[in-house]
Amino acid sequence: MLALEGKREDIKEPSRKAQRKLDGTRIMVIKDGENVKIMAARSWANDYASRYLNIVDDVRKLPVDRCVLDGELTFFEKGTDRDVFVNALSKPETKKDFDIKAMMFDVLWVDDDNLEHLPFKDRDEILKTLIPSGLRHVKAIKTVTKNKMEYFNQLKAKQGEGVVLKEEASPYRQGQRTSDWLKVKHWKDTDAVVVGYTRGQGSRAKTFGSIVLAQRDKQGNWHYIGKSSGFKEADIRRMLAKMKQLETSKSPLVDAPKDLNIKAWVKPQIVAQVKYYERTPYNILRFPDFIRERSDKKPSECLLPKP
Prior knowledge:
Layout: E1 2-5, E2 16-21, E3 25-32, E4 35-40, H1 53-60, E5 66-77, E6 83-84, H2 92-95, E7 98-110, E8 113-114, H3 120-130, E9 138-140, E10 143-144, H4 148-157, E11 162-167, E12 177-185, E13 188-198, E14 211-216, E15 222-228, H5 233-245, E16 247-248, E17 262-276, E18 278-279, E19 285-286, E20 289-293
Parallel strand pairs: 1-12, 7-9
Antiparallel strand pairs: 2-10, 2-11, 3-4, 3-5, 5-6, 5-7, 7-8, 11-12, 13-14, 13-17, 14-15, 16-17, 17-20, 18-19
């Protein structure tokens, strides 16, 4: 189940409950006796269980024989409550500086009972009884019912991403993006496809300056929406290596500006998540900054909104 974009005003609606929006990898945790799977929820392409044995051990301690839980594989800076996006397939040396937890926010099945038809309020109560408070690596995300705006602002103060608002009477709708769930963030973000990169200057002369972003219209054409920077050194090296493998002599864009200072065009296969201030009437992003690569999303899903 997926969320639509919401507004700050939606936080005040009494029927909506707030849960912290974490910057992690969406997962489905499946327990079947001693068998535990931690599946990449959007693609079902990866089972992370063998990489996160502490989480598997905690799932086995849940007081039911079988269950399916929905949540986020989240990396917290050690000793803090600050979540940082780290690829779930990262090497052990990358993960060693983080406390890694399965932060669960919904339950779909318990033993032989399908709970998807139950209202969110009831599913949330079941989830809280299902996950003992003493577990270190599997946690139930807190659900806030009062002072939600204050909670939203508290998250902003510690650089949290925002909240997901859930209609208390709503069932779980597999594979659907509906207004029953609304994500309200402290900034706007979008997913776009990388179609090129520009020449860098100074210390970046040997790498690149920014990536060129595009989104797709209904006819399958790629439209320019801006250039993004804001890369960490590790991001620069990784992105450059990927882009070099996809270089092409022809622009994928139908409307490429002439003053892009292009170093190379790239086949539209890499999806990047960027945050931005607003869109112009021509769908150009103002002040876009790179957040992360989205290996869980297909380029064809990066759609251009109506102008």
